[in-house]
Amino acid sequence: MRIVVTGGAGFIGSNFIRHMLATEPDCGVVNLDKLTYAGNLENLADVERDPRYRFIKGSICDVELVDAILKERFDALMNFAAESHVDRSIQDARAFVETNTLGTQVILDACRRHRVPRMVQVSTDEVYGSLGPSGYFREDSPLSPNSPYAASKAAGDLLVAAYVRTYGLPAIITRSSNNYGPYQFPEKAVPLFITNAIAGEALPLYGDGLQVREWLHVQDHCEALALILRNGHNGEIYNIGGKCERANIDVARHILRTLGKPDSLIVHVEDRLGHDRRYALDMSKLERKLGWRPRIPFETGLKETVGWYEDHVTWWTRIKAGEYREYYQKTYGDLSHVSQ
């Protein structure tokens, strides 16, 4: 199998590439990534010399580049490329619309022109909006995004569904719950909390911290995606959940306990605009149709993730300098008065 992975230098994309090269001896991967602030080739340093792997720097919005790549003939395209941080989308939505919506349209047109046998759109549970204290999102739940990020992803998903219906494009949409694990850019909640706690710095927690998320280890996610790539049905949507709901404040406390740090490092900051209260997925379709379910318990996966960041301090300290530090202070304010 020869596949194009877009956004393969990011968190989930890099883990997926590593998973495919490790489990599919005959798999060849071309990684197309623009290398924005969250794309990092260090994430794939261990496979960069693998003859089955090739990196191309570029944007999915570049019509000529995407077209030239797909002329080589591939068995599938996995679209991980996305602007994905809600806070950044609130500050400036333009890049999110360009990449997540227009970029998806460029990919769809190229896949159609070159008759790519399978396109997988890797999406998010955030397109469904916010849940109350009970219930779950199903694949046929209406889309009701509440942030510019979620709206741009929902628009991309709708384009995929339209190309399936209008042109018969062989495409699949997946929507996962919150991922965590190694190589995650440290502006997201879990790596932010872990790296701040290691450094003895404040853990900024939005509002009351009682927002509930469903957590999925990235390795479980990659295994589900590989299964869907092989055995999924064109035109389908698959929810990929971790079967683990936790309030944000409980995640922060668990990380602090794991590292032997005090809860006093948690600092409540002004809540995010339009902050969704709860996400949770009904993933019975994926279990029933393809026999998949998550393997890694949250407590086990989180402990291993904490250990990974402890062992890769150089990786994240380099990231959390310069532009990141300016963005952090703009988002959360000066929290330097809180330290261990």
From TrEMBL:
<feature type="domain" description="NAD(P)-binding">
    <location>
        <begin position="5"/>
        <end position="305"/>
    </location>
</feature>
<dbReference type="GO" id="GO:0008460">
    <property type="term" value="F:dTDP-glucose 4,6-dehydratase activity"/>
</dbReference>
<keyword id="KW-0520">NAD</keyword>
<dbReference type="InterPro" id="IPR036291">
    <property type="entry name" value="NAD(P)-bd_dom_sf"/>
</dbReference>
<dbReference type="InterPro" id="IPR005888">
    <property type="entry name" value="dTDP_Gluc_deHydtase"/>
</dbReference>
<dbReference type="Pfam" id="PF16363">
    <property type="entry name" value="GDP_Man_Dehyd"/>
</dbReference>
<keyword id="KW-0456">Lyase</keyword>
<dbReference type="GO" id="GO:0009225">
    <property type="term" value="P:nucleotide-sugar metabolic process"/>
</dbReference>
<comment type="similarity">
    <text>Belongs to the NAD(P)-dependent epimerase/dehydratase family. dTDP-glucose dehydratase subfamily.</text>
</comment>
<protein>
    <recommendedName>
        <fullName>dTDP-glucose 4,6-dehydratase</fullName>
        <ecNumber>4.2.1.46</ecNumber>
    </recommendedName>
</protein>
<dbReference type="InterPro" id="IPR016040">
    <property type="entry name" value="NAD(P)-bd_dom"/>
</dbReference>
